[in-house]
Amino acid sequence: MSALHPFALRTTQLLFCLLSSCLLSHCGRNSKDPQFTDTKAPGPTPEGMVWIPGGQTLMGSNHSPHESPIHEIAVDGFWMDQTEVTNAQFAQFVAATNYITLAERTPKLEDFPENLRASINPADLVPGALVFSPPATQPRTLDNFHQWWRYQPGANWRHPQGPGSSIENRMNHPVVCLAWEDANAYAQWAGKRLPTEAEWEYAARGGTGPKTYLWGEEDAKRVEFANTWIGTFPVASGPAASLKGTTPVKQFPPNEFGLHDMAGNVWEHVADWYQPNYHAVSPRLNPPGPKTSYDPNEPGIQKRVIKGGSWLCNPSYCTGYRPSARMANAIDSAADHTGFRCVVSAKKS
Asked: Where is the Sulfatase-modifying factor enzyme-like domain (predicted)?
């Protein structure tokens, strides 16, 4: 196997579920039903959004150390995009602002950790993004994601799989190949913001109390509710094989709040910096996320949280489609399975 492109060295390991944390487990149980504080929206609901009434829920799980401990949170009400931001919506933003995404910019040597710079060939510093590329045969183990990911020069939101690919017939699909700053730039332009991790997880649970999946406790039912990997990962087989990538928004049923694709399709950027132990110190009311990023595995790389899983998630490798699932993602990382949605705060009287 050829060496991974140097531009991907700082990001690839940050994008994908760790094998050690990809075994199913169940959230803790609490008999207390959700209690809502502001069921009525304080004003007109913006187009394409739904009102999420404030309330409390249990956040986190016993699935892995960085999802624990299970703890109670409470959030104020807010509006949230009913779907992930689509290619059509992002195209409007770019047309209005001439914004250039990170994957479209030529990387600079100083963008890389100092200890890697000597090993980088300047000729390899070309714009691009990470693209899923399944191997020809099933790997013996799933502990080396370099077997199915590659850095693809020329891949960006307009060309998610690289030159020759197009979004022309996918304008109602989630926009992908965006880094965190790209998602944040769109949110600011739209007069919105990225949700906190607590808001995102609260909204994903739909106000129905703790459960392992949005739809209940049976993983097998995900085919009815989410765009996830079907077949043997990462080499799909059979007519139902899931090499199709993203699906149009609203293709699967919404949750109880009216939100689509809070499980699967694409991972979603949220506002929070990543720290593995934040759940242990999180305040109960409107947790804002930590003030800084820290991952003990790679302390020199700035990371934020992504939520929700993607079309690549599968119980044999990654169950990121659980509401409690969270993953660390480098802030300068762009891949063809990551997008976002926005929220709007309710104005305080």
From this structure: 47-343
b/e per residue 84-98 (b: at least 16 CB within 10 A):
bbbbebbeebbeeee
φ, ψ for residue 134 (rounded to 5)? Answer: -65, 145
How buried is 220 (Cβ within 10 angstroms: 0-12 exposed, 13-18 middle, 19+ buried)? exposed
Q: How far apart are CA 95 and CA 340, in angstroms?
A: 19
Parallel, antiparallel or unpaired: strands 303-307 and 267-273: antiparallel
**How many whole angstroms separate alpha carbon 262 and alpha carbon 171?**
19
Angle CA 211–183–104, to nearest 5: 130
Taking alpha carbons only, the member of 67, 151, 195 closest to residue 332 is: 151
List pLDDT tens digits, range 214-269.
999 999 999 999 999 988 888 865 444 445 799 999 999 999 999 999 999 999 99
17, 318 Cβ separation under 8 angstroms: yes
Residue 176 has a CB neighbour count (10 Å cut-off) of: 31
Report the chain's terminal Cα–Cα distance, integer Å: 60
Q: Where are the domains of the chain?
A: 6-345
Q: State the DSSP string of 202-234.
A: HHHHTTS---SBTTBS-GGGHHHH-B---SSSS
CA dist., res. 176 & res. 186, Å (int)? 13
Give helix then strand counts, H and E, for the chain: 6, 11
Please state, in angstroms and rounded to a whole number, the distance separating the CA atoms of residues 340 and 247.
14
Mean pLDDT by 10 residues, the chain (349 residues): 42 37 36 65 95 95 94 96 98 98 90 73 85 87 84 97 95 98 98 98 91 94 93 67 79 96 98 98 97 93 97 90 97 96 86
